[in-house]
Amino acid sequence: MIDLELPYPPSVNHYWRRVGARTLISRGGRAFRQTVCSILAAHGIRPLDGPVELVVDVFPPDRRRRDLDNLQKALLDALAHGGAYHDDSQIARLTIQRRHVVPVGKVRVRLEAQRDG
After folding, report:
1. Radius of gyration over alpha carbons of the chain, in Å?
2. SS3 annotation, the chain
3. Which neighbouring-strand residues pair with 97?
4. What would the pLDDT profile of 8-53 be if each residue is shown by its tens digit?
5. How many Cα atoms occupy the beta-carbon half-sphere of 46 within 13 Å?
6. Terminal CA-to-CA distance of the chain, rounded, Å?
7. Which residues are bridge partners to 18 per DSSP?
């Protein structure tokens, strides 16, 4: 099981940037991904094989209204890019829930190979 505390991810509304005809990951999105990669590397995380279960607890930075589904893209892509698993298509079960507000926000991620049954 992988159990990590990560920074609060950028919303999908701030993750992508359009530059001419190209769509790119924003500067903030790249910084988030690099931070997640560094955290995974520091913990010696190796990619899980096969189907995985992912539980995410979201601790928002303030009381503003936010859609939880807007946080998933940056987080799941960063976890894959950092080597927690090979590809987000491996995620067989995803649970995400909002928790209490904490300064600057954070997410807690628990990831494990899916059990049979």
Report:
1. 14
2. CEEEEEECCCCHHHHEEEECCEEEECHHHHHHHHHHHHHHHHCCCCCECCCEEEEEEEECCCCCCCCHHHCHHHHHHHHHHHCCECCHHHEEEEEEEECCCCCCCEEEEEEEECCCC
3. 57
4. 999 887 778 888 888 888 898 999 999 999 999 999 999 999 999 9
5. 1
6. 18
7. 23
In tens, the pLDDT along 42-101 reads 999 999 999 999 999 999 999 999 899 989 999 999 999 999 999 989 999 999 999 999
State whether the Cα torsion 35-38-42-45 is positive or negative.
positive
Structure tokens at 3: 């159990």
The amino acid present at 53, given as its one-letter code, is: E
Query: What are the two backbone dihedrals, phi and then psi, of residue 67, each rounded to the nearest 5 degrees?
Result: -90, 120
Task: Please state, as a whole number, how many other Cβ atoms lie within 10 Å of the Cβ of residue 20.
Answer: 6
Structure tokens at 95: 């649970």
What's the length of the chain?
Answer: 117
